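User: Kinesin-like protein. Structure?
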Amino acid sequence: YSVDDDEKSLSSLEIIVPRDLADGFVNNKQESYKFKFQKIFDQEAKQDVVFDNIAKPVAECVLSGYNGTIFAYGQTGSGKTFTITGGAERYSDRGIIPRTLSYIFDQLQKDSSKVYTTHVSYLEIYNECGYDLLYPRHEASRLEDLPKVTVMEDPEQNIHLKNLSLQQATNEEEALNLLFLGDTNRMIAETPMNQASTRSHCIFTIHISSKEPGSATIRHSKLHLVDLAGSERVAKTGVGGHLLTEAKYINLSLHYLEQVIIALAEKNRSHIPYRNSMMTSVLRDSLGGNCMTTMIATLSVDKRNIDESISTCRFAQRVALIKNEAVLNEEIDPRLMIVQLKKEIQELKDELALVTGKQRTSELSQEELLQLDELIETFLEDNDPDSTLDVDADMRKIKYCFTHMKHLVNHSKISDKKLLSQCNSEENDTIKEAEEELKTLKELLQQRDNEINILVNMLKKEKKKAQDALFKFNVASAGSKLLEQSLSINFEECKSPSSCFSRLNEAKDFKSSIHRLPFLSRQTGGKMSLGCQEAFEVFKRDHADSITIEDNKHHLKQRFAEAKCLGEKLNEVRNKINHLKGVITQRHIQRAALAVSSPSEELNTLDPVEEELRMQIEAEKKSYKTMFNRLKGLKVEIEHLQLLMEKVKVKLQKDFETWWSEEATNGQV
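Assistant: Predicted structure:
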């Protein structure tokens, strides 16, 4: 195969299949297949490049109020789950879902002009039945015991999913915890084509609501991130039993998806068979409605899979023929509309009362008079020239307001006259007192000069002592705080069988806590016998994921060491900034003392030494900010590595429980 990636035009993929001489001399099979796509990523493409080209534009549209969908299609083992969810071995292997969550919450933090609310849901479609992967009792139940998610339609043909929970996520950490919880509960199995084949379709949905403060308009948008199960040819894989049943349901649902795509691509088609399968019903808007949809076609370009690869390319080009019309999802907040309409009704009633002349004759109550006094006081204290005094269309209240304000004006005039007469008499007394104070101040001035010199010397000594004590305290406390905040992973505990199922110590670094998944065996009530522990030790040593755990531990140790080093450097920079500020303060005291003892014009000019010290402080602040941002990035990476380790440990525990139960059953037989 060859890829022609031209920036000006569409990228093209050419697959050449040489003719087989065994098919005979007369052979009219096609040798060259050419396909054009918007973007083609070769096998060496990194996850961040895929995210920037595919998911980032869709995420920006979702933040603006449009619906978006990204779904991956391809045969088993071609890399769909790796692209959508990511790998569990390295931080750089994060897929589209975690990177999109990180990007969305980063943008929400930067935008302070709106109030955002974020919810997530995780739907699994297994053998044409929907299940909620975020159901609270999912860990303690079998898949068949969970409430099934059903598709409901309203009169306007909008799709609603019954029994699918919406979990609120206020930050990136909560959303990633929900994602890892859902991934742990997914149905996977080993097939001849893939060691960890996902046997179900999964739809991870991010719901975003935004509203400007004081506005009655709300924007709703949702982003579907779909990981389809891989299609496979049963004749080629040779699976049977339970895996064969799963493969039939997977291929059938993908067949219905292709039928919908073909129907949408035809211009004169009146009926679209969305209801044939649950997946096409859920993705109804994404396939042919109000949504900006992107499809990722994954290919396994191998000689034995060449027919499936060509079929996938043809399907992707049929999808490209569909044109969706995405619109901005805005609606009026009904609660605010009710308040506005009630206010408008009251204003119309008041205007009608003024026009018809039907005024109230009863006297105002004491409570109403107190309210009017508060309104008048607030109105008079308000400095805004456009402020108004709103007392409704009631002539009793209007007359009372005029009377009260007239009383306040007269009272203020009388007070001004009394104040003026007092000022004239006090002015003469003030002149005499001022002359006496001037004489007293001259006598005190000389005394103050001597006192200032003494105080300056005392301040210098005390400042130096305080700085020395503060420096020693900061150095001693910074090391202890960093050690307390860093998550210490005891690598030697993993060598003894009794500690293999203990949790990682709770991470206290950077004041964040991570939700931990249960690692102990549920079947044994959280306890394991010594024999079972020894068996698990042997099982864990031979398991493929043990290398991944050790690598992640090594990476965590490196990140903690780097974070500790950065913390010490930050402490040094902070102490240096405090020292420079102390030097500037000392120079201020010296210049003030000189100005009192021998005033001159030179003391009023700028101090070049002080300017140089301020420039040093600014440079140190920039260095401090750079190291702090790096420390913040290390925090995110450490948290992600910890979650990856827990996910691998959960998988290791489940694999051992399955193996242990099978061995126990075989032993009984």
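Confidence is low (pLDDT under 50) at residues 189-196, 475-526. The CA atoms of residues 190 and 196 lie 5 Å apart.
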